[in-house]
Structures are given as structure tokens and as C-alpha cells.
Design brief:
Layout: H1 2-29, H2 31-42, E1 43-48, E2 55-56, E3 62-74, H3 76-79, H4 86-93, H5 97-106, E4 113-119, H6 121-129, E5 135-144, H7 152-155, H8 167-171, H9 173-177, E6 181-187, E7 193-201, E8 209-210, H10 215-231, E9 236-243, E10 249-255, H11 268-271, H12 274-277, H13 287-297, E11 305-307, E12 312-315, E13 318-321, E14 328-330, H14 331-337, H15 340-348, H16 352-361, E15 379-380, H17 388-395, E16 400-401, H18 404-415, E17 419-420, E18 435-436, H19 440-453, E19 471-481, E20 484-498, E21 505-512, H20 521-524, H21 526-539, H22 549-554, H23 556-566
Parallel strand pairs: 2-8
Antiparallel strand pairs: 1-6, 2-3, 3-4, 3-5, 6-7, 9-10, 9-21, 11-14, 12-13, 15-16, 17-18, 19-20, 20-21
């Protein structure tokens, strides 16, 4: 009937008018409002992660690099409508479905919740393949350490948010970190980015750090120290190698260590950089430093004789003993035989201020200038100035405490003809200006005395390095425990330099509580020094100074190296 057609036409006309009115409202009258609403659902401002600067060794070999990864996150308010799919998600993430359900429900009013930080690409792909609304990925970087446990204590590590937590990562965090950027993107209904709209702020990547470490020497030192700690069933060990001319740390290792790429098994004991944070009494390795004070005072000369008979002496009612009666010794003999009586008589003839001043000038009781986080300063007691017995015991390494790095720095002054330099973990091509703390003649005289320690008659024969002269000193210390010194627990120490005549490297080795029979520094620590220095001389191409004419004939190119190195005829 006509009225039906008319009614139907009217309905269509009303619908068309309504649609046109709605289109007019959305496209013209309130277009800005709807544009904002659409953008609010699709446009997002996201952070662009900054690449953390690399940490490399002096030759450009990497110690720490950053690799791009994804973190998986979700919007609880959007996922709540698809909670029936939580078991699928939980299975892929290998987490408990009930716990995940509870966590999402508890945070449903929030718009952001991490599910998995720094996920592998495979895992991220599996999660996003579920196409659950509200799930999304966030670009990040993960820190990776190619040297692993070998350099863990020096390099340290960064946390999941790329903030340095230990070691170099912490010390240079502001330099390494960089500034993240920002950009506006369009996301689809599943939260996936499919288009970049604009870059709001550019990324400022972190800057690299070039360390003084030599990765080759670091590996060699670590392997040798670890083998020694295992062989002697020791609790721990530390070793430091310094460049004499610059004060740079070429190698620094500790045992026990940890895998910095998998810190699930890391413990406070294994994470500590003992070479920097742990102090110990240096024992007889203190005697060359005391001898430097005596020689610099002008009261003693290398040829002066000291009567150590009968092998013991009393100072303020306390007994000081040698292993046996060494009789009359010159100053070199006191170092060679490691005579406690001899060094005590020598130092007590010197003014207390001279002894104290030398120790202070050599950096004892102060930081090394390295800037390494958590560095200990050791202990140098002022009360010893007014107590002869304390002065005597300090002379042979009791009542004073140092870190391995402090001791290495002090020996560096002997190696550098009396110039002490700050310790540095950064590579420096230049010779670093230091501070003179003793006369040139004093440093050379003490080095010559220390050469006798590594001779056939000395206590450090196992520190010898084929074709190179070595100056060094052994130390064996009763371990200090609560209530006093343990009779059967020791620290084994060796400190030395190569080549003795014009040293290039200084090294300190400390083994904590060897428990397989041998415990003397010359037995336990000296062989570590020997093996590392033998390899170091080869790696750094340092010319031998004890090579024979027979060897020169067999290796004619060695002669030219020696001439170039020394600038003199061989």
C-alpha cells in the first residue's frame, strides 16, 4: 500500500539525515575532540633506549657490550577481558598461571606491568603470536660481558635498567649511560607499533671507556692465580699488575670469582674485588719500604753491617725473632735473609718521623687515586711513632695493613727510581708525572737488594723469570683472627718487578690461607709471579736483559731488539 512505501521512505530519510548529522558532528563540528580520542587510543609517546657505551681494553678488545632485546609488558586493564587466555601466556613464559592471574587482577587499574624483562627474540615472538590485546614489546638493551668471570671484579655489572652497580660500570655510570630519546608512534589494537609519527627527542648514546687493562694479560693472570688457589687449597687470592711508567692497572684478578653474565649464583664472597677492598698485613714485603726510609735518612748505606746475633732481640719487653742466627749482615743480606732482627735494628736507629714519612709518601694509609668504588685505605697507626716495639713490628709488616693495589703502588715507586704515581684504570698513552718520594740512589739500591731475594741463596728463587732479572720480596704472615694471630693459618705474598735494572711491570700476589702443606710466600705466591711475568714479557715484547751470548747466536734478531731497547752495545 502507498502509506507503507511512504513510511519506509520516511524511515530511510530519517536514517540518512541522522547519519549525515553524525558525520557533520564528527568530521566538522567536533572533529578535534574525536581526533584526540582516536590519538589517545592509538598514538603513544615511547622512550627510545640509549645504547650504553662499550668498555674495552687498551687494545680495543671488548669487556662490556650492549645487545638489543625486548621486554614484554601488558596493560592489565585491556588484558582483563581476555583472562581465559592467561594459561597460554603463562605456559610460554614458564610461570604459574594462578600467580599471573592474581597479579593482573590486582593491578587492573594500571596501564603498565612488566611480564618479562630482556626476553630473548624467540620468546618475544611466541608471546606476541598469541595476539592477546594489551600485550606489547619494549625495546631495550642487555649488557653482555665477553670476558665473563675473568674480569668480573674490575668491570662490575649493570642492572636490568642499565644502571652500573659495581666496578667500572658503577664508577663511570654517568659517562657510559647516555640519554634515552622519545618518539610518537601509532599502535594497533594489540599494542604493536606499526608506524613512527615523529621523533620528539634524539637519543644520546653512552660514551665508551678505554681501560688500562690488557685482556691477554688479564686472562693469563687469572688462569695462573686460579690454578695456584686450587693447587694449594686456598680460601682466596688476589693479583695486581701495574705499568711502572704510567701507574696503569694492566691486570687485576681475584679468586673466588663469578660469572657476571649469570649472576644467579653470585655471593658477597665471590663478588668482592679483594685486590681493592680487602686489607692484610704485608709481612716481610714491607722490609724493602722500610729499607728505603733507612737509606734515604743518610744514616745507613748498603754496605753498613748489622749484627743480628743471636737471632733474637727484646724491644720494650717483647721478643723479636729470626728463623735462625744470621750473624753479621750488610743491608742487602738483611733483605735477602728476611731478618726481622736486622730490619728492627736498622729502623730503630732512624728517627720515627723519617720512617712514618716514608710510609705515608708511599701511599700507605691512603687511597691510590684510582677512583675505584669501595677502595679501602688500609691502616697506618700514628701511635707507632711513640712506641719502639710497634715501630719495629711495622718495619717487617705487622701492625700495618694494605690492599694488594696499595702494595703494588708502593713497589711501583721503587721500580720508578723513587717516583710514585696514582693508580689508573684508564688507558693513558703518556708517561704520567708523579711525585718524588725517595732519592734515585735509594730506589736503585733497594732494587739491587731485592734481586738477591730471587737468587739461589734467597727466599724467592721460584719467582725467577728466564732471561730477565727480577727484584722482589717474599712475605709469609700469620693470619690475624679475632683474639690474635692464628699459628697455623697464613697469608702467602710476593711483590716484585721485572726487569730489575729498568722495571716495566710491578706485580703483587697474595694467596689467602693455603692449606696443602706449603705456605711460605716463596713457595706459594712466587711461582704465580714467575709464570705471569714470563708471559707478560713475551706479550708486551719487553727485551730480555739476562740473555747469554749463546742465545744471541741462536736468535740473531734478539740482539737487534736489545740494542734498540737499551740504546747500547750488547
Amino acid at each position: 500500500m502507498p502509506w507503507r512505501r511512504i513510511s519506509l521512505l520516511v524511515v530511510f530519510l530519517i536514517a540518512v539525515v541522522a547519519l549525515l548529522g553524525r558525520a557533520l558532528d564528527m568530521q566538522i563540528l567536533h572533529s578535534e575532540f574525536f581526533q584526540r580520542q582516536g590519538n589517545a587510543r592509538q598514538l603513544r609517546v615511547v622512550s627510545i633506549p640509549a645504547y650504553r657505551g662499550q668498555i674495552v681494553d687498551r687494545n680495543g678488545e671488548p669487556f662490556a657490550v650492549s645487545t638489543p632485546v625486548n621486554s614484554i609488558w601488558l596493560n592489565p586493564g585491556e588484558v582483563i577481558s581476555d583472562m581465559h587466555r592467561i594459561p597460554e601466556l603463562a605456559k610460554i613464559l614458564s610461570i604459574d598461571a594462578k600467580a599471573l592471574y592474581k597479579k593482573i587482577t590486582a593491578q587492573q587499574t594500571r596501564e603498565f606491568m612488566y611480564l618479562k624483562r630482556q626476553a630473548s627474540p624467540e620468546l618475544a615472538s611466541k608471546v606476541m603470536a598469541l595476539e592477546i590485546p594489551g600485550l606489547a614489546l619494549q625495546d631495550e638493551y642487555r649488557r653482555y660481558y665477553p670476558a665473563g668471570e675473568v674480569a668480573a671484579h674490575v668491570i662490575g655489572f649493570a642492572d636490568v635498567d642499565d644502571n652500573g652497580q659495581e666496578g667500572i660500570e658503577l664508577a663511570f655510570n654517568d659517562w657510559l649511560k647516555g640519554e634515552p630519546g622519545k618518539k610518537r608512534v601509532i599502535r594497533d589494537r594489540l599494542g604493536r607499533v606499526f608506524d613512527d609519527v615523529e621523533h620528539i627527542r634524539p637519543v644520546e648514546p653512552g660514551k665508551p671507556v678505554v681501560l688500562s687493562l690488557d685482556r691477554r694479560l688479564q686472562y693469563l693472570t687469572y688462569r695462573t692465580l686460579k690454578a695456584a688457589v686450587i693447587k694449594h687449597n686456598a680460601i682466596a687470592g688476589s693479583a695486581v699488575v701495574l705499568d711502572v711508567k704510567s701507574g696503569e692497572v694492566l691486570a687485576m684478578v681475584n679468586q673466588p670469582s663469578f660469572n657476571v653474565n649469570d649472576r644467579s649464583q653470585m655471593s658477597p664472597e665471590s663478588a668482592r674485588n679483594r685486590a681493592v677492598t680487602d686489607v692484610f698485613e704485608p709481612g716481610s714485603t714491607m722490609k724493602p719500604l722500610t729499607m728505603a726510609a733507612a737509606l734515604d735518612s743518610g744514616i745507613w748505606t748498603p754496605t753498613t753491617k748489622v749484627n743480628t746475633s743471636p737471632g733474637y732481640m727484646k724491644v720494650q719487653g717483647n721478643m723479636i725473632r729470626d728463623h735462625r742466627n744470621y750473624g753479621e749482615l750488610d743491608l742487602g743480606g738483611v733483605i735477602e735473609k728476611s731478618s726481622n732482627v736486622g730490619i728492627s735494628k736498622i729502623v730503630l736507629a732512624v728517627d720515627a718521623d723519617v720512617q712514618w714519612g716514608m710510609y705515608q709518601n708511599l701511599g700507605l694509609g691512603a687511597d691510590t687515586g684510582s677512583g675505584f668504588p669501595g677502595e679501602a685505605i688500609g691502616r697506618l697507626s700514628v701511635s707507632a711513632l711513640n712506641n719502639d716495639f710497634e715501630r719495629a713490628t711495622m718495619a717487617f709488616g705487622y701492625g700495618v695493613s694494605v690492599t694488594p693495589m696499595q702494595l703494588a703502588r708502593a713497589y711501583g715507586a721503587l721500580a720508578a727510581d723513587g717516583i710514585i704515581r696514582p693508580v689508573s684504570f684508564l688507558h693513558n698513552e703518556q708517561v704520567v708525572e708523579g711525585e718524588r718520594v725517595m732519592r734515585v740512589e735509594t730506589a736503585r739500591a733497594v732494587r739491587k737488594m731485592m734481586q738477591s731475594v730471587v737468587s739461589e741463596e734467597g727466599t724467592g728463587i721460584r719467582a725467577q723469570v728466564a732471561n730477565y732479572s727480577v727484584a722482589g720480596k717474599t712475605g709469609t704472615v700469620h693470619k690475624f683472627i679475632s683474639g690474635g694471630y692464628a699459628e697455623e693459618r697464613y697469608l702467602s705474598i710476593f711483590a716484585g718487578m721485572v726487569p730489575a735494572g729498568s722495571p716495566e711491570l710491578v706485580m703483587v700476589v697474595m694467596i689467602d690461607e693455603p692449606r696443602n702443606g706449603e705456605h711460605f710466600g716463596g713457595e706459594v705466591a712466587a711461582p704465580v709471579f714467575s709464570q705471569v711475568m714470563a708471559g707478560a714479557m713475551r706479550l708486551l715484547d719487553v727485551a730480555p736483559d739476562l740473555i747469554s751470548e749463546k742465545q744471541l747466536i741462536m736468535k740473531p734478531n734478539m740482539k737487534s731488539k736489545l740494542v734498540a731497547k737499551k740504546g747500547e752495545n750488547v
